[in-house]
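Field reference: sequence -> structure
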Amino acid sequence: MTVKTILARKGTDVVTIDPAATVAAATTLLNERGIGAVVVTGTEGRTIGIVSERDIVKALGARGAGVLDVPVSEIMTRKVVTCAQHDTIGELMQTMTEGKFRHVPVVEQDRLVGIVSIGDVVKSRLEQMEQESNALRDYIRTA
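Structure field:
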C-alpha cells in the first residue's frame, strides 16, 4: 500500500498559510479545521515550512502569550520532511517514527499534492491488517 492509496481515500486538500500570518491566525485555522498542522507556503505555492500544534505549544512555553502576535515564519519548522505518492506506508511509518512528527506533506515535482497524518497511516494499516486477516480466514475455510 502506498501514500497514493491514502490520498485517493482521504482527498488531496491541504490547508496552507502564508508565512506572514500570525501564530494566532494559525491557531484559529487549526481549531476551525480540526487539524494538527498547517503547511506554510511561499511564492508560487512552494512549501517553506510547517506549523503544528506542537510548534505552537513549544513557542508559547518559551516566549509566552505574546508569541501569538508574531508571524508563523518565526516558529515554523523550516526543515520539512516530505514524501511522495509512490512511498509505501511502511516507509512513511518509519520516517514519522524516526523524525518524531505526525504530519508529512506529499510533494510531487516540487508541488504540494496532499498531506498525510499519523492517523491516516494507522487507519490505513489497520484496514490492511483486517483485509489480510479476512483473506487468511477465507483460505482456512476453503482448505
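Note: The chain is about 45% helix and 20% strand.
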